């Protein structure tokens, strides 16, 4: 665990001021504003900015602006499930750059959805795919190549 004194620009005296002001841990420091830290710990705003940045690096925290998130979201693709109703229900298909969890009882269709996505991701974009490729990792021995072939023939 990183101690306050391990941060650049934080000596014994500054660390003591930070602790007294309630900034004893990295997460609290990393999420503070420079103004807040400066006022509460009675340190200069420039020093506060450097301390906050160092705490963010120590905690591996990076904030994104709404604009950055919007730009990143432009690259998100959607893969059709093969069902217009399901696609509409989930906002247009399964999103890329995300983890989608499918759960249910035995025989409820979890493997079926996985098989369908393995096929539909390879479809051209105009047909709801991404012109992509698929790696199917099967930990429960449910992969059926003959089912993939049937689904592909249906598309």
Write up this protein.
This protein has 155 residues and is an all-alpha fold. The chain has two domains: 4-59, 5' to 3' exonuclease, C-terminal subdomain (DNA polymerase, domain 1, Orthogonal Bundle), CATH 1.10.150; 71-154, Rossmann fold. Helices cover 46% and strands 3% of the residues. The protein has eight helices and two strands; from the N terminus they run αααααβαβαα. The chain has a two-stranded antiparallel ribbon with strand order 1-2. The longest helix has 15 residues, at 45-59.
Keywords:
mainly alpha, two-stranded antiparallel sheet, 2 domains, DNA polymerase, domain 1, 8 helices, Rossmann fold
CATH superfamily of the largest domain: P-loop containing nucleotide triphosphate hydrolases
Strand content: under 5%
Helix content: 40-55%
How does the helix and strand content classify structurally? mainly alpha
Low-confidence stretches: none
The averaged pLDDT comes out at: 92
Q: What count of structural domains?
A: 2
CATH fold assignment of the largest domain: Rossmann fold
Strand order of the largest sheet: 1-2
CATH C-level label of the largest domain: Alpha Beta
What pattern of helices and strands is seen along the backbone?
HHHHHEHEHH
At CATH level 2, the architecture of the largest domain is 3-Layer(aba) Sandwich
In this structure, how is the largest beta sheet organized?
A: 2 strands, antiparallel
Number of helices: 8
Label the overall shape. Answer: elongated
Rounded to the nearest angstrom, the distance between the terminal CA atoms is 54 Å
Number of strands: 2
* Rg calc: 25 Å
């Amino acid at each position: 665990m990183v101690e306050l004194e391990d941060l650049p620009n934080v000596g014994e005296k500054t660390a003591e001021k930070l602790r007294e002001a309630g900034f004893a841990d990295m997460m609290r420091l990393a999420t503070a504003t420079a103004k807040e830290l400066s006022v509460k710990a009675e340190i200069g705003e420039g020093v506060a900015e450097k301390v906050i940045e160092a705490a963010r690096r120590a905690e591996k925290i990076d904030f994104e602006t709404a604009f950055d998130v919007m730009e990143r979201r432009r690259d998100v693709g959607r893969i059709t499930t093969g069902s217009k109703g399901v696609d509409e229900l989930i906002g247009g298909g399964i999103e890329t750059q995300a983890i989608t969890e499918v759960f249910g009882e035995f025989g409820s269709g979890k493997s079926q959805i996985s098989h369908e996505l393995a096929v539909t991701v390879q479809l051209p974009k105009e047909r709801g795919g991404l012109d992509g490729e698929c790696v199917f990792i099967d930990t429960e021995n449910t992969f059926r190549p003959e089912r993939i072939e049937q689904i592909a023939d249906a598309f």
